[in-house]
Write a structure and sequence with these properties.
The chain is of the alpha+beta class. It contains two helices and four strands, in the order βββαβα. The model has no long low-confidence stretch (mean pLDDT 86).
Length: 90
């Protein structure tokens, strides 16, 4: 299973990266940007999406610390029949 696209809304410093502004992955990808531009927060959003543990309601998690709003992180995956067999969907 391969993560090919991620949409992020109101997560840390990322207000909205959805639709045509979503982050597309093409294999071996590199995040490049100035200091404090959000590179680590994009990686944190991927971890937030993939980890199974319960997340604490920490104001640092929310865009501009607006903890009354909902954080949304959506991942889109490309799967193979082997992936589906491994998780019992074939």
């Amino acid at each position: 299973m391969e993560l090919i696209d991620i949409e992020i809304e109101r997560f840390r410093s990322v207000k909205e990266q959805t639709g045509s502004e979503s982050i597309e992955f093409q294999g071996l990808d590199c995040l490049v940007g100035e200091n404090n531009s959000g590179k680590t927060n994009i990686l944190s959003a991927v971890r937030f999406l993939l980890e199974e543990e319960t997340k604490e309601n920490d104001s640092e998690l929310f865009w501009q610390k607006r903890d009354n709003e909902t954080v949304e992180v959506r991942g889109y995956f490309e799967t193979t029949p082997t992936d589906l067999d491994r998780i019992g969907l074939v």
